[in-house]
Amino acid sequence: MEKHQFRAEWIWEKENTVPNDTVVFRKTFILDNIPKNAISYAAVDTKYWLFINGKMAVFEGGLFRESLPGCGYADCFDLAPYLQTGKNDLVCISWFYGNEGRNNTNSTHAGWIFECESLALFSGSNFLCLRHPAYYQTGEPNPSYLYGGHNIGFNANLDMNFFDLNFDDSKMHPASVYPNDVWGEQVLRPIPFHRRGSLCRFSDIPIKNGKAVLSLPKATQFLPYLEVEAKGGEVIDIHSDRYTVNGGPGDETRLYSGHRIEYICAPGLNRFDALNYLFGEQIIYSFSESVKVLFLGYRNSGYDTDIIGLFTCDDELLNTLVQKSANTLYVCMRDNFMDCPDRERGQWIGDVSVQMPQIFYLMDSNSQKLAKKAISDFIHLRKGDVLVGNVPGADFSELPAQSLNAISEMGFIAEYYRGTGDTEVLSWAFEPAVRYLMLWNLNDDGLIVGRKGNWRWFDHLYNADEDVLENAWYYSAIKFSQEMANILDDHRFDSFLEERAESILRSFDRCYFQGDYYSSKGIVDDRANAMAVLSGLCKKENYPKIRTILLSVFNATTYMENYILTALCKMNYRKDAYHRMMSRYYNLAQNENSTLWEDFYILGTKNHAWSGAPATIAFRYFMGIETNDGYQTFRINYEKSLFKKMNCCFPAKNGTVTVNIDNEKGNVSILNQSDSRYIPY
Q1: For position 106, what pLDDT does the model report?
Q2: Phi and psi (nearest 5°) for 115?
Q3: What is the pTM of this model?
Q4: Which residue among 351, 437, 477, 544 is least packed, with the fewest CB closer than 10 Å?
């Protein structure tokens, strides 16, 4: 991972750091000539927005910590397009997150650092600063602990025109300098800057009982905008329809709140262009009667990638499911993959393993940068030899089954490698994966002893057969470690891996196979039997018996359903997979939401990307798109019995591939606009 060594100094306000703190930095400089390039670097704890001559040059700089233990991220960007001859003003609005959460690790102090060598600009006491007087800490209700975010309060009466070239900076003072070791080394930002779209205007603004409820085209990350006339002092509350959500299965009655924006009007015309994003399918503005609404709108935001994958067939409900999968995947991406963008924004490793194959069928190559960052987070932020289940963040937890999933043949490291051919991630992951596997012990029966970790979680727990599941995940992780060893030509751990693999293979059927299904304690679990298949521990002659289980037992929630459907397809029961999927996902497909719920029973959040199995199954098994060598080549092994017609477009190496299948006519047409080579099946 490439690092940047700053010559500049970290700066902040001289007063004590407080959570949800916003500080403005300002620097005026003179240019006789505009340079061709003005390559600049900046880092922050936690976010910043940079303006040159009143124009936004960096939207939402900074990433939630950490990149490596004790380290952060440095942004790199070019300021040349924003410069002018003569006087130039640099203004930075910096926001300190401050509290510990599931997507952020708190440091001991807020800070910002900036340098541009070609402009001879280096942050230090030569920069002016001021705690932004308009931003304030709201009263209740505040976001729940699980969410870990902040409300944004903005008092327009206290705003200062920091962006005016003639701004009077006499009320500002020299920035205070802090030691660099507070923030550690800085790794260059591995993902693109997030999007800030053009301003979208609502043409129709119905206001009822002082409230405007305005629908967006679909669920999205957005930046609200308003123009109003006011007497002054009126409070406008802005939040989304996803502001409060219930917990997931097992926690259905608990209500969690996200964050909102609170705006206090100044007398006369008010314009507010929010910097902090909200998420939802509707924007809800609440006004007092004295506020005259002139213009309400928003800007789309989100991770900088495009959905280019497309799947259609005769079944419109399946088409809807695939599109909802794509929508859900996208809104669960920003600094990291998110559990969900409303209840919590943590990156859970099990979730990412389900999300990873989706990006290779649905999104452009920018998405792969976030995928590689997820692997880096998982490996580099481990706790000793323990691979933790949610990183980055302060709330580190070991979920043994999720950690095993991540390093298994079905996990996100394997999926990423097969989609990119990038061996660097294998060099990161190989030894940590083996060291983690070494933490597990064997029973006298030759099977592994389960690890409790912080949470022995396999799925939302509906009669989960933990022992079978854990041994299956472990065996698959052993096999992928052996695959990594061969690719890297690193055979230090061959004996350990071979002995463990042989022990489990020898004992699995003897201990768990009950004649018609796998079980450790009398439970008949679809997830355990699916994983017996996917791990390779189930003999092929037992596939018909396992098929019966997978068509009659429905313990899995949307997370593990991915593996049930995959197992049916791997056994070549693709038509069965289709029927099970359409039955189980019916409620999620036909409801009015543009994203997929956390659970089949309309529980939890309305946007959980772990529910996106339909996209993977449709592309990988119904269309039969096979790309296992970094998209150097692709094959098509489609299921002829399902639909009269199927069409898809998917991203390939440096382009796209379009496939049209007409089963009635027996026609298959392929438009290959990429560098990937088609190999007939």
Answers
A1: 66
A2: -155, 145
A3: 0.97
A4: 544
